[in-house]
Amino acid sequence: MTQPNTPSARKSKSSAIKWLLVFLLIPGLLLSAYLGFVLHWSYSDGERAGYLQKFSRKGWLCKTYEGEMAMTTVPGVAPVLWAFTVRDEALATRLSAMMGQRVSLTYDEHRGIPTTCFGDTSYFVNKVQVLDK
Fold first, then answer.
1. Where do the structural domains in the chain lie, given as residue ranges?
2. CA-based R_g, the chain, Å
3. Could you read off the pLDDT of 52-67 as tens digits, one per residue?
4. C-alpha to C-alpha distance for 47 and 131, rounded to whole angstroms
5. In this predicted structure, what is the pLDDT of residue 9?
6. Angle at 75 between CA 70 and CA 77, to 5 degrees
7. What percent of the chain has pLDDT over 90?
8. How far is residue 132 from each of residues 9, 35, 80, measured CA to CA in Å?
9. Predicted TM-score (pTM) of this structure
10. In the chain, which ranges are E strands?
């Protein structure tokens, strides 16, 4: 029977801590690297124009700004709805004041985000411009 202060008991405790760190630290680093990649690398970018019809702050724990824009191609045709996410608080305030107006939104698309804590959609708006006054 070994005593708690013997070299073999200390070695066993030390190797258990090393394995615990390996199994927790490596997946944590990989997840951080993946999140950094998908949040900073843009799959696509562009602009969409339409009428801003819905904008709200949503989420249980992670509050995000989510909006919906109605894009019409021809008057009288049912509009196509486009959902988007806003991460910037100042831009969210501007968008909230533009409800019902025709706007052009500049966005970046980030695919592969594993959680909705960063937004419900993969389209992140970073600029807005009013088209009609």
1. 1-41, 44-130
2. 24
3. 999 999 988 889 999 9
4. 13
5. 57
6. 70
7. 46
8. 76, 38, 19
9. 0.74
10. 44-58, 64-71, 80-86, 102-109, 123-130
Tokens linked to 104 = 């052009």
Using the 8-state DSSP alphabet, how is residue 59 labeled?
Answer: -
Rounded CA-CA distance 60/117 in Å is 9
CATH number for domain 44-130, candidates 3.40.1130.10, 3.30.470.20, 3.30.930.10, 2.40.50.140: 2.40.50.140
In the block, residue with structure tokens 């927790």: 24
Kindly state the tokens that stand for 122.
């993969």
Alpha-carbon span 33 to 26, nearest angstrom: 11
Structure tokens at 80: 């196509």
Instruction: Report the residue count for the chain.
Output: 133
Reference 82, options 73, 74, 71, 91; nearest CA is 71
pLDDT of residue 102: 93
Non-local CB neighbours of 49 within 8 Å, separated by 6+ positions = 71, 102, 103, 104, 105, 131
